[in-house]
Amino acid sequence: MKQRYHNSQKEVKGMNTSELREQFLIEDLMTNGEIKLTYSHYDRIIVGGAVPTNGSLALENFPMLRAEFFLERREMGVINVGGHGSISVDGKAYDLAKKDCLYIGRGSKEISFSSKDAGTPAEFYILSAPAHKEYPTTLMKEADATPVTLGSAETSNHRTIYKYIYADGIQSCQLVMGLTTLKTGSVWNTMPSHVHDRRMEAYFYFDLAADQTIFHFMGEPQETRHMTVHNNQAIISPPWSIHSGCGTSNYSFIWGMGGENQDYGDMDAVAITDLK
To answer: Does 72 appear as a known binding residue?
Structure first.
């Protein structure tokens, strides 16, 4: 499991492109036959991906967690962005089609991932946060995620939002998790921008054509930077940073947060004309 440490606003102002990518971009999340994990020191979030191709993949423990097992003091949200698959939690199997979400509560010991068809494997996006209380492992299907369509073609942000783990959905200690799908012809996400000093956020971009890219904007509102992001790659966003993106075509992305609260509306808006 790789580690990423904190970076202050002052540090980020002086970073070049390769330094920004090294600190905030996760490029190799989805690798056939492997589980890839990155530990961020922003709110102790773990970002990962699991792509089972040759049988099931078991989630191992890591010495750096100083725990008896991975979720001894953690919780986890998983969204499938690939073919049909299943997740086994302490002997109980949960079937996940594309865009289904499974919350796995603290104290769950044996977790494994599998695909129905190795030719079109499941691709499980993983987000894990520290937890102080047990909540039940819960499956939510895409259709049950209360989809809401917002934006418009005129502003290039016509999109559907699916909320899974949040105050009025699947219960958790601190995880908040869902996904957004942009309509054909729409390319902007999270514009106007915002920050939320009380929570970090991670973005995972998927369903982007291989020959297309996304320009992800980060940094303080008056000191922005950007990185190019491709399909099945993730961004770690510090609490003080904006997190907006613009693609060369439409795409989908999973948003996930951990921090002081679970209030979906806890954000400090930034006017478009104030960005620099």
So the answer is: no
Cα–Cα distance for residue pair 227/76, rounded to 1 Å: 27
Distance CA 241, CA 194 (A): 8
Residues β-bridged to residue 104? 76
Q: Is 84 annotated as a binding residue?
A: no
Distance CA 189, CA 200 (A): 17
Cα distance between residue 147 and residue 180, in whole Å: 9
Per-residue pLDDT tens for 169-212? 999 999 999 999 999 999 999 999 999 999 999 999 999 999 99
For residue range 120-177, list pLDDT tens digits in order: 999 999 999 999 999 999 999 999 998 999 999 999 999 999 999 999 999 999 999 9
Q: What percent of the chain has pLDDT over 70?
A: 100
User: Mean per-residue pLDDT for 225-241?
Assistant: 97
Question: Beta strands 199-206 and 101-104: pairing type?
Answer: unpaired
What lies within 8 Å, CB to CB, of 53 at 6+ separation is 32, 33, 115, 118, 121
Cα distance between residue 187 and residue 246, in whole Å: 5
CA 64 to chain CA centroid, Å, is 22
Domain 2-274 grouped into CATH 2.60.120.10: yes
Domain boundaries, the chain: 2-274
Confirm or deny that 194 is annotated as ligand binding.
Answer: yes
More confident call, 77 vs 267: 77
- Kindly report the pTM of this predicted structure: 0.96
* Residue 243 labeled ligand binder: yes
Strand 252-259 and strand 223-229: pairing?
A: unpaired
